[in-house]
Amino acid sequence: MSESLSLPLIEARLWHPVCEASVLAAEPLPLRLLGQDLVLWRDAAGAPHAFIDQCPHRGARLSLGRVCEGRLTCPYHGWAFEGDGRCASIPAVPGFKPPASHAARTFAVVERHGLLWVRLLQEGDDPGVPRFDAEGDARLRKVLCGPYDVAGSAPRIVENFLDMSHFGFVHTGILGDLAHTETPPYQVSVDAQGVHVSDVRAWQPQSNRLSAEGSWVSYGYEVPAPYTAVLTKAPDAQAGYSESIALFVCPVEPERSRVWVRLAVPDFASSDEQLRAFQDGIFMQDAPIVESQRPRLLPVTDAVVREVHSAADRSSTAYRRYLREQGITFGVC
């Protein structure tokens, strides 16, 4: 790893979503992760690659270049790079064979859950891309919603997703109402695999796009990775499946994030646009609240900022403890 890169070690070892797989086409795509500028591109075989967005020659942005004959070329002097970062040619000295020192810096990239995921640091055990168990259930329809850009930290966004007691106030008439604001007691545990929340019940006028009447809905939540959370409804007794929603957050900067929501739902009647519009409406109600929170970083200890809690906040306090135990520093204070 170059000395010019300043990365939080724990977070750099994790896999992070950076873009929808479908948006990466023929042109290089600039993006940012953990405060670092990256460029994603596809080679002639369609395989994705992730480089630091900086040519090793004179520091120009590789994302301003183009892909030619399956290689990423620099816009400044035309240096051409293979998918593994090797410099294949230097037009100014065509007979020169570039050594390994002339290679572009590369990062691991994989496709999962309709997204491309990048891991910036290969040292240590590979934690794997956060799981979404409903992904492989053919009885459930998968739809990717977003991206949503939020002026807030990734942990603030995850904590909001875990919070049920705001439903009646922020999502009145949809996920909650002012006549049913109580959050009944629920169970929470934390271990090395993440945060586990069970037996959560909420009154919802419209729990999904096709709901026709209000009802009590039972949920479970999982936090399988620091910037990922999964909501799973109680299993359908007749169908035998569990509708799920995953929240995948890219920590762009400590106080800036990009978010996707992955639906796994039994609704095959609605169009993708209708499902996304419903989810967009929910998220757009949450976003200004999250962006209003101060500090934008999530306080995980009382050392800097002390936030008080109630019994309804057991999931969020458990999440904060999990972040502390994992050694997370990006997006928290």
Care to describe what's here?
By secondary structure, this protein is of the alpha+beta class. The chain folds into 2 domains: 9-119, Rieske Iron-sulfur Protein, CATH 2.102.10; 133-326, Alpha-Beta Complex (Naphthalene 1,2-dioxygenase Alpha Subunit, Chain A, domain 1). It contains 5 helices and 17 strands. It has helices at residues 9-12, 154-162, 167-170, 272-292, 314-326; strands at residues 16-20, 29-33, 36-42, 48-52, 66-68, 71-73, 80-81, 87-89, 106-112, 115-119, 141-150, 187-191, 194-204, 215-225, 228-233, 244-253, 256-265. It is globular, with a radius of gyration of 22 Å. The protein starts with 8 loop residues before the first helix and ends in a 7-residue tail after the last helix. The mean pLDDT is 94.
The domain tally reads 2
Tell me about the largest β-sheet. 7 strands, antiparallel
Q: Tell me, what is the CATH class of the largest domain?
A: Alpha Beta
Strand content: 25-35%
Secondary-structure element order, as H and E?
A: HEEEEEEEEEEEHHEEEEEEHH
